[in-house]
Design a protein that fits this description.
Blueprint lengths: L4 H6 L2 H7 L4 H13 L28 E7 L25 H4 L23 E4 L6 E4 L3 H4 L5 E8 L5 H10 L9 H9 L9 E6 L25 E2 L18 H22 L2 H24 L6 H7 L9 H13 L4 E6 L8 H25 L6 E6 L3 E6 L10 E4 L3 E7 L6 E3 L1 E2 L6 E3 L2 E2 H11 L9 E3 L2 E3 L15
Parallel strand pairs: 1-7, 1-8, 4-12, 4-15, 5-6, 5-7
Antiparallel strand pairs: 2-3, 4-11, 8-11, 9-10, 13-14, 16-17
Helix pairs in contact: 8-9, 10-12, 11-12
Length: 489
């Protein structure tokens, strides 16, 4: 078979070794062929497009955008959504060995001489959700007003016990760095809904307690084309760096510069056939258009007073969680596919009551306002809202225990998340934990199960949304995961 000159240049020995998808033995066999046998005709073709975007959803999507609310640090399910009134009579008693059953502990509590049970000091209210009702902590009274929209999962579990691998796992489906984030997969699969804004946008809010580092790879594109990585909007100054041209540079000057760069890049792309060159060209053009679209997006002065009554006065202040929630609605309104909001500070190893109060005041009203706002605008049925952290917290106290103060360590064996909006079952509570909130006793849901379910809502078979990299077809759910149909509308 005769190859075009471009492919001959691509298929050099150096590029063969850099890009080869064969095993070591296959590579050795290829060298033997190169020395005397027939030459390979072409690199193996991937089963899905190797650049740009996937071919679109596999079936009709129930949601077209996602707003993911990640509470970084691991919020305590026992103080928010997993009501365990029976723990009150067990205050300060040792957690039975039969409950812990040899499960691993972090280095922060493995040396404790005892593990005293710490019931939540917060009252719970049972809210009408159109079904059997749902218990929500007094810390989130606004969220209770939209209980009929919530699909609460009390039986989540994860594999990681420390923040870095746990956040990586929740965001990318794998504990080790290097995989694409969920937002990048959604961008790759769904494509763009707005020519002038990125498909994946990230915003971060500082919390009030112990805050873990948030690495940019949590919203990275991994081995997917780089245009699918998350675009972070800053909380102060220009929302995006270099949004404004330097003094003396006109819009026409910028256009001429980009056209010249694009002409050279196109020549290089035809010469080496590196898909990353095209990705960079796409990013350059997106940046040019964002100089006009982002200022309009972030100018919230035209929002009505009734909108601010929903989100609260903090929504007027850039950098607050309320302001990020308002921008999230404006982003999906403009066709952005995936909006990732991080709220830091949920890592409460000590002083949990005081720190959690502050955290909940910052997020409760804005989240309820966001859900209500989406519903009023007719957008909630096509927008999936998710809330959760990377793991839960222990029923036993870390450090000192008193009736008005305690802390909790990391707990991966069970925790709570919730969803609302497009495609998920309204007013539903799924799964159950034991009387101590330490183990799952009914309907467990893994991180991969959750990812498979959310992809299903977006119109994807999680086993078919793949990307070929280094000889293997990778997917968000790795090699496991199932769609939890009980969570679907």
């Amino acid at each position: 078979m005769n190859l075009p000159p471009e492919l001959h240049r691509l298929w050099t020995r150096r590029r063969f070794f850099a890009r080869s998808t064969a095993s070591v033995s296959g590579a050795l066999g290829a060298m033997a062929l190169a020395s005397g046998g027939p030459q390979p005709s072409a690199p193996p073709a991937p089963s899905t497009p190797h650049e740009g975007e996937a071919s679109g959803p596999h079936f009709a999507p129930r949601a077209r955008s996602v707003i993911s609310l990640h509470m970084e640090g691991g919020p305590s399910h026992l103080d928010l959504f997993d009501y365990k009134p029976g723990l009150q009579k067990l205050y300060d008693q040792d957690l039975p060995d039969s409950v812990r059953d040899g499960q691993r502990l972090t280095g922060m509590t493995s040396g404790q001489k005892r593990f005293p049970v710490a019931p939540s000091m917060f009252a719970f209210k049972k809210w009408d959700n159109g079904g059997d009702g749902v218990h929500i902590s007094e810390l989130m009274p606004y969220l209770g007003t939209v209980a009929e929209e919530l699909c609460v999962v009390r039986s989540m579990h994860t594999e990681a016990i420390n923040h870095e691998p746990a956040i990586t796992f929740v965001q990318t489906g794998h504990q080790q760095p290097g995989r694409p984030s969920f937002g990048a997969w959604a961008s790759y699969g769904l494509g763009s809904g707005n020519h002038d804004l990125p498909t994946f946008v990230v915003m971060i809010t500082q919390g009030f307690g112990n805050m873990q580092a948030l690495a940019a790879r949590f919203w990275g594109s991994g081995f997917l084309p780089s245009q699918h990585q998350g675009c972070k909007l800053r909380s102060s100054g220009d929302p995006v760096l270099f949004l404004r041209d330097p003094n003396g540079v006109s819009r026409a000057d910028r256009r001429q510069m980009l056209d010249l760069v694009a002409a050279f890049a196109e020549q290089e792309s035809r010469r080496v056939m590196d898909p990353e060159i095209q990705a960079r060209l796409l990013q350059q053009e997106m940046a040019y258009r964002m100089q006009m679209s982002v200022p309009e997006l972030t100018d919230v002065s035209n929002e009505s007073e009734s909108t601010y009554l929903l989100y609260g006065e903090e929504a007027r202040k850039p950098g607050t969680f309320a302001h990020s929630c308002l921008l999230a609605r404006r982003l999906v309104e403009r066709g952005v596919r995936f909006v990732q909001l991080y709220m830091r500070g949920w890592d409460q190893h000590g002083n949990l009551p005081s720190e959690m109060r502050k955290q909940c005041v910052a997020v409760d009203r804005p989240i309820a306002g966001l859900i209500t706002d989406l519903r009023r605008r007719g957008m909630l049925d096509e927008t999936l809202v998710t809330w959760g952290g990377e793991f839960g917290r222990t029923v036993y106290s870390q450090g000192g225990l008193s009736h008005d103060n305690y802390g909790r360590d990391h707990h991966p064996r069970c925790f709570s998340v919730w969803m609302a909006g497009g495609g998920v079952r309204r007013g539903h509570v799924h799964g159950e934990t034991c009387d101590f909130g330490y183990n799952i006793v009914r309907d467990p849901v893994s991180v991969h199960d959750l990812h498979a379910t959310l992809l299903h809502v977006l119109g994807f078979d999680h086993e078919r949304l793949v990307f070929r990299h280094q000889g293997r077809e990778f997917r968000l759910t790795d090699v496991s995961g199932r769609v939890v149909h009980e969570l679907l509308a």
